[in-house]
């Protein structure tokens, strides 16, 4: 797991006092401020922790009756909630999806009908011709 979700989990764990599981308040903005990351990065970290089963949203963020925003409430999946529900520990059943490696399609270099490359020579002779050309140029400059 990436460092940001790990740091977010530690922040949520720090706010857990032993009796408030399911009522741990932490908004995306407060998490972003606490972790010194952007709101989008904090949101992605929350999503990663939920997908992997480390935390669960018990109540989403919303506007209260007076129009003041209420932060989301979270539950740690390794602890029983305060209403007596046992810990689900769903993170222990999470498995990473196996992805097949994507091969890059590579366009072959065009070849002439005689098997030589683009410049009219094969690769090995091009290096040799270059060295010969360099030696001839150096000889003509000195003499």
Automatic annotation (TrEMBL):
InterPro entries reported in the protein's UniProt record: HTH_MarR-typ (IPR000835)
Residues covered by region (Disordered): 61-143
Basic and acidic residues bias (residue ranges): 75-86
Positions of the HTH marR-type domain: 19-59
Start-end of Polar residues biased regions: 133-143
Signal peptide start and end residues: none
UniProt protein name: Helix-turn-helix domain-containing protein
Upper classification of the organism: Bacteria, Pseudomonadati, Pseudomonadota, Alphaproteobacteria, Rhodobacterales
């Amino acid at each position: 797991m990436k460092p940001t979700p790990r740091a977010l989990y530690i922040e949520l764990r720090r706010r857990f006092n032993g009796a408030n599981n399911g009522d741990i308040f932490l908004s995306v903005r407060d998490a972003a401020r606490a972790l010194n990351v952007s709101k989008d990065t904090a949101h992605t970290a929350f999503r990663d922790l939920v997908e992997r089963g480390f935390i669960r949203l018990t109540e989403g963020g919303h506007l209260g009756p007076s129009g003041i925003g209420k932060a989301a409430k979270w539950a740690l999946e390794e602890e029983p909630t305060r209403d007596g529900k046992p810990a689900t520990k769903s993170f222990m059943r999470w498995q990473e999806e196996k992805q097949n490696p994507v091969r890059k399609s590579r366009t072959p270099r065009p070849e002439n009908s005689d098997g030589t490359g683009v410049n009219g020579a094969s690769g090995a002779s091009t290096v040799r011709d270059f060295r010969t050309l360099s030696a001839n140029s150096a000889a003509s400059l000195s003499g």
